[in-house]
Amino acid sequence: MPDSTPTDTARPHPTAHLAAALVRAVRDVLTQSLRVCRELFVIMIPVVIGVKVLQELGAVPWLAMPLTPLMALVGLPPEMGLVWATALLNNIYSAIIVFLALGSVTLTQAQMTVLATLILVAHNMPVELGIARKSGARLRFQILSRFLGALVLGMILNVVYRATGTLQEPAVVLFAHAEASAPPSLWLWAVGEGQKLASIALIITALMGLMRVLTAVGAIALFNRLLRPMLSLIGIGPAASGLTVVGLTLGLGYGGGLIIHEAKNGHVDKRDVFFSLTLMGLCHSLIEDTLLMAMMGAQLSGILWARLAFALAATALLVKCTARLAPQLADRLLWSNVARIPAP
């Protein structure tokens, strides 16, 4: 009789499983990267052209003039006001494109760290403030906390770096491949800008791949476990701490979206929602956005450690101060009740 026992050759080899999983992961990363790049470039390409037109007309200094006093407070050239304004209204990538389009401005590592910190604390305000409003946080306070928080942290970093004389070397911007001087023709300018957009696409893909690897090896989960005790220490309740960690590590879109869902279901107290959103507003996407700004020449001392410490200290102070407010005043100034999803 023939032997009916399955042979080893009938079983899929473990290497085949690994190869298939790797192919799927690469395909997913490339698909996601292409989708993100398409959405970003629809915004970025008009911005690049607009900045070039403004440069040719000599209008950039005039547009940056209203923010000149604020840039002086944090030790930055006035043109950087245009970069930060772009970040406030759009996203970090748009601000990077504007910075690269300015071309002739060279920053020290300290200045780049300050600029990056301003951008990381306060960017994409229309979208991110919309998330906060849907969660029940009062819009006026969230605007002030993001904008003033960015300025205060920027001023602190500027004072520290100047007093200690650290990070005074020129910042190395990994995105820029074209020459810093103005190109001699529109064609060479267009080629240079195309190179910059291509470098951004490559870096977006690399960051997405890195985030997938960090998640697979458990680094993100480890970072989450390390942050949880700190959140409890500053006064954010356990029901909101897990959601806050998601926002801190992965971004306000993820954490804020979870907060909206939990607030509408009544699973998180409105005070914890407010504290969580305020903390996430000051400091979110600690991994991906931090890596992105590091590639612009910013240093971790400001964009990671100082930003995290400042956000935790500011939120802890806010928890203490709001405990002294009358409930009616707190409801009017800081938070409101979210429309609940009816129970099934």
Describe this structure in words.
- This protein is mostly helical and 344 residues long.
- The protein has one domain (39-333).
- It contains 16 helices and no strands.
- Helix 7 packs parallel to helix 12 (252-264).
List keywords for this structure.
344 residues; mainly alpha; 72% helix
Q: Can you summarize the main beta sheet?
A: none
Task: Show unreliable segments.
Answer: 177-183, 339-344
How many structural domains? 1
User: How much strand content do the residues show?
Assistant: under 5%
Radius of gyration: 23 Å
Tally of contiguous helical segments: 16
Mean pLDDT comes to 80
Gap from first CA to last CA: 62 Å
Secondary structure class reads mainly alpha
Number of strands: 0
The share of residues in helices is over 70%
H/E series = HHHHHHHHHHHHHHHH
Question: Which descriptor suits the 3D outline?
Answer: globular
